[in-house]
Every structure is written in structure tokens, then in C-alpha cells.
Amino acid sequence: MRHRKSGRKLGRTASHRKATLSALSVSLIQHKKIRTTEAKAKETRRVVERLITRAKRAVQREGDGKAKDVHARREVFSFLRDREAVTTLFNEIAPKVAQRPGGYTRVVKLGQRYGDGAHLALIELVDYNAANLEKATAKATAKARKKEKEKTKKESEKKEKTEAVKEEKAQASAAG
């Protein structure tokens, strides 16, 4: 029986499991969302939520005009082993979620993988979804405008060509 045993083993040894969760956490912090299996996503959520809370509290303490909380940064680095991810976490993510009382990530189930039938999920940072949505919308509108300009340009060129052909026919019939 597994009563009162928290966490998933993910079919790995303890060191391999720690390395996997570290790598997934770094990817999530860097890319703001990743696609993985449902079990890995749920375990990554546990880890990342704790890291973000740690960073958020450190940033709040730093905000009082005090020096950087180096101890918190070192503890987070001891798990992540990636300087850029730690910098992103403390400088970008933690200030953005400062007012949020938890629940920094979202796991969205995607269905089963074709090859082996594994249940897939998307894990993403909640506050970055809206920003990404705005960027995607802006890109889509820019593409639509560009496409519309190209379309009107092609139509005007086509009209000019047809008018030129009509003029040539009119000149040929007048000359003939």
C-alpha cells in the first residue's frame, strides 16, 4: 500500500528523477511552457511552485532596500544548475507573480501520444499565457495586414494590366 507516500517515482532512480525534474524546471522557466507526460508535468509543478515561492519571498525581502538574498539564489541554483534560469526566475518571474498567492503554473491535459499511448500534458506559467496570447494576436493581425496589402497590390497590378491590354486592343482596332 502507498498510504502517505507523496510524489511519483517516474520509473527512475532518485538521482535520475532529481535530474529529470531539474531539467524540466529549467525548461519551464526559460520557455514559460513545455509539453511532457502528465505525470512529469504534475511532479514538475510541485517543484516549480516551491522554487517560485522561494524566489518571490526573496525578492520581497530585497525590495525593502536591502541587499540581494544570495542564500535564496544559491539554494535555487543548487537544484536548477543553470545561471540563466535562476536569473530569469528572480528578475523576471518572481516580481511578476509577487501579488499571486500561489498557483503559478497550469497543467492542461492534451490526450494520448500516438506512439506509446502516454498521457500528454502542457505545463505553463499562468501569468505568461496572457502575454503570449497578446503577442500571438499582434503577430496574427500584422500578418493579416501584410496579406491584405499584398492582395490589394496584386489587384491594382491586375487592373493596370487589363487596362493596358484594353488600350492596346483599342489602338489596334483604331489602326486596323
Short overview:
This protein is mainly α and 176 residues long. Helices cover 67% and strands 11% of the residues.
Explain this structure to me?
Helix 1 packs across helix 2, helix 1 packs across helix 4 (83-96) and helix 3 packs across helix 4 (83-96). The radius of gyration is 27 Å and the shape is elongated. It has helices at 14-31, 38-62, 70-80, 83-96, 126-175; strands at 33-37, 105-112, 119-125. The chain has a domain at 14-125: 50s Ribosomal Protein L17, Chain: A (Alpha-Beta Complex). It is built from five helices and three strands; from the N terminus they run H-E-H-H-H-E-E-H.
What order do the helices and strands come in, and which of them pair?
Elements: H1 14-31, E1 33-37, H2 38-62, H3 70-80, H4 83-96, E2 105-112, E3 119-125, H5 126-175
Antiparallel strand pairs: 1-3, 2-3
Helix pairs in contact: 1-2, 1-4, 2-4, 3-4
For CATH, the homologous superfamily of the domain at 14-125 is named as Ribosomal protein L17
| Tally of individual helices | 5
End-to-end Cα distance, whole Å, is 101 Å
What percent of the residues sit in helical stretches (DSSP H or I)? 55-70%
CATH fold field value of the domain at 14-125: 50s Ribosomal Protein L17, Chain: A
Question: Which properties best describe this structure?
Answer:
5 helices; 3-stranded antiparallel sheet; 67% helix; mainly alpha; elongated; 50s Ribosomal Protein L17, Chain: A; 176 residues
